[in-house]
Amino acid sequence: MSACGVRCTETWMGQRPAGLNSIEVCHSPLVSNLLPSSFRSSSQLSGSHGPGFAKLNRREGAGGWSPPTSDRYQWLEVDLGERTQITAVATQGRYGSSDWLTAYLLMFSDTGHNWRQYRQEDSIGREVRGQDELQTSSPRRKDRKDSRTFQLSNSNADSVVQHKLQHPVIARYVRLIPLDWNPNGRIGLRLETYGCPYNSDVVNFDGRSGLLYRLSPQLRQASKESFSLRFKTLRNSGILLHAEGRSEHSLTLELEKGKLLLLLQKDFLTSVRLLVLMRSICH
Fold it and tell me: Which of 120, 117, 119, 100 lies closest to 109, judged by CA?
């Protein structure tokens, strides 16, 4: 197949192997050192309630971000400056107030225009263009757990609630949309995101040859394993990825007339062929 680029990313989660430092564990604060210009919001109650005051544990201004109206049309956005691997999000209410959240929706973007909703149980992101689709959906019932929302346990404006993401998210922009808040106050927020720089291998080849990518040989214990592959192609058929393991186990990902197929082989006699995506993915 004729491909103009492939990006491969190896992601590890689980127990930390000996010798790895805190950066390699990927849980460093990402927001605390950002400039005020990195923050945006739907609106602000006053100059001292602006989004630039929404850093975790900070007390400047009015002690955090608050909009003039508390409804589900409000949002707070952070530009991390570059594509980053995000592993956790922490929230806090506005300092010295009765303003804090009890539930919120988390969204990510590479461009600041097209957004993906985070879902807790499987980390699947659904692309949303703008806010209209979100606001026209039916209201979330408080007695029903929504996999896209984070349920908090805040009882005051100073406690910090941190949510670790089941799978890291790669994005430059983070947007938090309040869904519920203290009934005796208004929307109030300070936040932090945790993660590390996003590193990937980018190569170009003509499609007539193969690309060999060897994962780290270091033994690792992981609860889940993931491999991310992004590609561009001018043809609708060809092998994208082939991986071999022990005992004749293999995995092959290929395009066949615009359809994405996954072939799992356990041995010479047993194989399973799955149609992963029905619609065409070729442009």
Answer: 117
